[in-house]
Amino acid sequence: MIVTKTEPQAAARPAWTWAEMRQEPYRLFFPLGLVSGAIGMGVWIPFFFFPTRFPFPGQSHAVIQIQSFLLFFIFGFLTTMLPKILGVRPLGPVQYALFPIGLIGVIITASAGMPVASQIIHLLLIGNFIAFVGMRFSSRRGNPPPHFAFIAVAMAADVAGTIIRILAMQGILGAVGLRAGSLLQYQAFPLLLILGVGGFLLPKLFANQDVNPKSLQGNLGVKKVAPWIISFLFLSSYAMEVYGLAHNLGYPALRAAYALRSAVWLWFIFTDVKVHKIKVAGKLPPYLLGAKLSLIVTAVGLFMPVIRPAYLLAWEHVIFLSGFLRLTLSIASRVLAAHSGHLEILAMHRKKARVYGMLIVLAMMSRIATDIWPRGHWMHLAIAATLAITAMGIWAKIYFPLLLKFPGR
Question: Measured between alpha carbons, how far is 141 from 220 in angstroms, rounded to an integer?
Answer without folding.
Answer: 15
